[in-house]
Structures are given as structure tokens and as C-alpha cells.
């Protein structure tokens, strides 16, 4: 594990029920979080990630209990027996604060978690963690749970979240509170789309968001059917973007030049690509982040090729240039440093590996492989070994040397 201090592998959270209340004038969050938990190993306590808020009440299976918050953990004494689920209910309140993440990326400066906004709203970005700032969570990428979230806000305010019929890890949950208006749209084969925007603030972004049906149709042509029941985007106050499940989180650019408009469209495409790679099929650990970022980055490049007309030789040159520099600076994508979470190497070097695999297989076989990978592993967690085994089984050829070289080599493979 890259981050053993976060998450509890001894617990499998099955379902979260969150009943929350947000007071914009005080930036105060209060509510009750109910978690249905399946113990994996015997234990004498429930330990979940939680920080910055005051615990008011705790029950375990309806009986009063005590809860202690220390060093980013909520600890509740309880007798846990493997495969005998328990129900933990926690009442709490406070003003949430974002927490840091180990990264040198520019967007890491704003932190992760639930962030109160200057106007009284709030929004989340939470990779590799951050859910712990607004409810007790098991911050493991491998622990997917179902969610039922209700948020009470004053008149004129809207709380937007992404309840899903499919399980999701904590980092893919989103919450945004603002003076939102929903804009409805329809995607491929009648897919319901919603764009949550603030009138006035987001008017310039809406024409790009309205390209979603086109983007999703193109992705389906390569990857097969969109893997969820709904899609869309919510615009928040971040400088970044996030592949939050079924409802991608898009920040507000500081400028809106022609170049920035293209970047925003590319980013939207990237986050939608994650619905197949990262959301439907999720890495088992953060060490395999290339399994979603490399794939989404490669699809972003393929979309740029379609829109801007550059050829494969140009893409090869661009990827190898990025790859050589990033391996020197950050190391190979299959062995990411815990101090540099989501560095550019897992994006660009992962995409370079997929370009080589695409070249080796040809387009028809490569995209058939991509479609089959998602269809055969939907709503699961997977790792490098599983991907290599699947490539071998699907193609009847051993490409492990190619894949491992591009994931592990300190220099760009020939």
C-alpha cells in the first residue's frame, strides 16, 4: 500500500447513508452518517478515516457507544466478527477544512476534501483521500460502497451529489453546494445528462458542457456502451477536474482564451473516459493508478488527433519526449513515489505504453481488447497482473514484456 495510514483493510463498507445539513452563513456542516460494515478480520474496534469535525453521538447496531477522533481516525470500541455486518451511526457537526495530499502538482495547493466557498457554498475534490473531512469513510480505493445522500440547504441553494446504483470508492463521491441550476440534455441511446451550473458564473462553460453527447458518442464508438445509468457534470470552485462517478466535477478556469476552451473540452473528454477506466473498472491500489490515468490520457490524445488532425508519428514523438523527461524526474509509472501522488508520469508514460500496445495489436484488436476489459470487469477492482493476464487471454499472445518494460523501466524503452 502506498498510503497505509489511510483506510482500514479489515473493514468492507457496504453502504453509506448520509443525512446532512449545510448552513451557508456559518459554513456549518451537521448530520448523521450511517455505515453498514462487513468486518473482514476479527477486531475490537471500528476504525474509519475522519477529521476536523466534532462527534456528537455514536451507536453500534442501535446501542450507544463512544467515539474518539485522533490523528485522522474515528475509533469506536466494538466486537467485530468476520462476515457479521454491523451498523455504525455517527452524529457530528463543524466547519470542514480541506487537508493536504502528497503531491507537487500545481492543483495540490488547494488541498482535498470538502472546501467551504467564500459565498457560503462548498465543494469537494478528494483524491487519494478527502471524504474523511465530511463523513467517516474508509479511504481505500479498493473499498467500493453504495451511497444514499440527502443534504438540506436553505431556499435558493442547491446541493448536488452523485448517488449511484453502482458501488464506488470514497474518492469518487462528490458534493457541491451553490446557487445551481440544472440543464438537462440527452446523450447516446437516450442517456440522461445533467449539467449543474451557476447562471452568470458558468455561462461561458455551458457550450462546452453541451458537447457531452458528442464526446460520449465518440467514446462509446471505441469502448462500448457507457457503463452507468446517467451522466453529466457539476461545475465547482476548483482549479482542477475530477472523474467523480456519473457526474464529473469540473472547475472554473481563471481565463477563457481559445486555447483554454480547447483544454476544457479535452479535460471534459478525459473525465468522461474515466467512467470506463477508473470508475467502472478501478485499480486495486494507488500503485496502479496508471490503470485509469494512462487510459484516460491516451483517449484524450486520440480525441485530439481526431479534432486537430495530427498523425500517429507526431503522437509517438510527443509521448516519447514526455516519457523520457518524466521517467528522469518522477520514475516509471508502475512504481509511483508516495510523495508524488498522481504525477504526470502515470498519465503520460501510461499513455505511451498503451500507444505501443495499440501499435503491436493494430486498432481493431486493441479497441476490442479495451471494450472486453471493461465489459468483463465492470464494477470491480483490478491490478497489473490481472490486466496482463487478460491481454494474454484475449489476444492469445504474450505482451507482458512490453507492458512491464513500459511500467518499470527507469528510461524510455526502445
From TrEMBL:
Pfam families: Peptidase_M1 (PF01433)
Protein name, per record: Aminopeptidase N
Keywords for this protein: Hydrolase, Metal-binding, Metalloprotease, Protease, Zinc
Keyword Metal-binding: yes
Its EC number(s): 3.4.11.2
Superkingdom in the source lineage: Bacteria
Alphabetical list of Gene3D superfamilies matching this protein: Neutral Protease Domain 2, tricorn interacting facor f3 domain
Entry's family note: Belongs to the peptidase M1 family.
Record-level GO BP terms: proteolysis
Reactions the enzyme catalyzes: Release of an N-terminal amino acid, Xaa-|-Yaa- from a peptide, amide or arylamide. Xaa is preferably Ala, but may be most amino acids including Pro (slow action). When a terminal hydrophobic residue is followed by a prolyl residue, the two may be released as an intact Xaa-Pro dipeptide
Cofactor: Zn(2+)
UniProt xrefs under InterPro entries: Aminopeptidase_N-like_N_sf, Peptidase_M1, Peptidase_M1_aminopeptidases, Peptidase_M1_dom, Peptidase_M4/M1_CTD_sf
GO terms for MF: alanyl aminopeptidase activity; metallopeptidase activity; zinc ion binding
All residue ranges annotated as the Peptidase M1 membrane alanine aminopeptidase domain in the record: 231-406
Native species: Actinoplanes cyaneus
Amino acid at each position: 500500500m502506498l498510503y497505509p495510514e489511510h483506510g482500514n483493510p479489515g473493514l468492507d463498507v457496504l453502504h453509506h447513508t448520509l443525512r446532512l445539513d449545510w448552513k451557508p452563513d456559518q459554513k456549518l456542516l451537521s448530520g448523521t452518517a450511517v455505515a453498514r460494515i462487513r468486518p473482514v478480520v476479527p477486531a475490537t474496534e471500528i476504525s474509519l478515516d475522519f477529521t476536523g469535525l466534532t462527534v456528537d453521538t455514536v451507536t453500534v447496531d442501535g446501542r450507544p457507544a463512544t467515539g474518539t477522533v485522533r490523528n485522522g481516525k474515528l475509533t469506536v470500541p466494538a466486537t467485530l466478527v468476520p462476515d457479521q455486518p454491523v451498523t455504525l451511526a455517527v452524529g457530528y457537526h463543524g466547519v470542514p477544512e480541506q487537508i493536504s495530499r502528497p503531491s507537487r502538482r500545481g492543483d495540490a495547493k488547494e488541498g482535498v476534501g470538502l472546501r467551504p466557498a467564500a459565498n457560503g457554498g462548498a465543494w469537494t475534490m478528494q483524491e487519494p483521500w478527502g471524504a474523511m473531512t465530511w463523513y467517516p469513510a474508509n479511504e481505500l480505493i479498493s473499498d467500493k460502497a453504495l451511497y444514499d445522500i440527502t443534504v438540506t440547504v436553505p431556499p435558493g441553494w442547491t446541493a448536488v451529489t452523485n448517488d449511484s446504483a453502482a458501488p464506488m470508492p470514497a474518492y469518487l463521491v462528490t458534493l457541491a453546494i451553490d446557487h445551481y441550476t440544472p440543464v438537462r440534455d440527452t446523450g447516446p441511446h437516450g442517456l440522461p445528462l445533467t449539467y449543474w451550473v451557476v447562471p452568470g458564473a458558468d455561462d461561458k462553460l455551458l457550450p462546452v458542457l453541451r458537447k457531452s453527447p458528442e464526446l460520449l458518442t465518440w467514446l462509446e464508438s471505441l469502448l462500448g456502451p457507457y457503463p452507468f445509468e446517467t451522466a453529466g457534470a457539476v461545475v465547482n470552485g476548483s482549479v482542477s477536474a475530477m472523474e467523480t462517478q456519473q457526474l464529473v466535477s469540473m472547475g472554473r478556469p481563471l481565463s477563457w482564451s481559445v486555447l483554454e476552451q480547447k483544454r476544457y473540452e479535452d479535460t471534459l473528454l478525459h473525465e468522461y473516459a474515466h467512467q470506463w477506466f477508473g470508475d467502472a473498472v478501478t485499480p486495486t491500489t494507488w500503485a496502479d493508478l496508471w490503470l485509469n490515468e494512462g487510459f484516460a490520457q491516451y483517449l484524450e490524445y486520440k480525441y485530439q488527433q481526431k479534432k486537430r488532425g495530427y498523425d500517429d508519428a507526431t503522437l509517438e514523438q510527443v509521448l516519447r519526449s514526455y516519457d523520457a523527461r518524466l521517467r528522469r524526474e518522477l520514475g516509471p509509472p508502475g512504481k509511483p513515489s508516495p510523495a508524488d501522488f498522481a504525477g504526470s508520469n502515470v498519465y503520460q508514460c501510461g499513455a505511451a505504453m498503451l500507444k505501443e500496445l495499440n501499435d503491436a495489436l493494430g486498432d481493431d484488436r486493441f479497441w476490442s481488447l479495451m471494450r472486453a476489459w471493461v465489459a468483463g470487469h465492470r464494477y470491480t477492482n483490478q491490478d497489473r497482473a490481472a490486466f496482463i493476464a487478460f491481454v494474454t487471454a484475449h489476444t492469445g499472445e504474450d505482451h507482458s514484456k512490453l507492458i512491464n518494460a513500459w511500467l518499470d523501466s527507469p528510461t524510455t524503452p526502445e
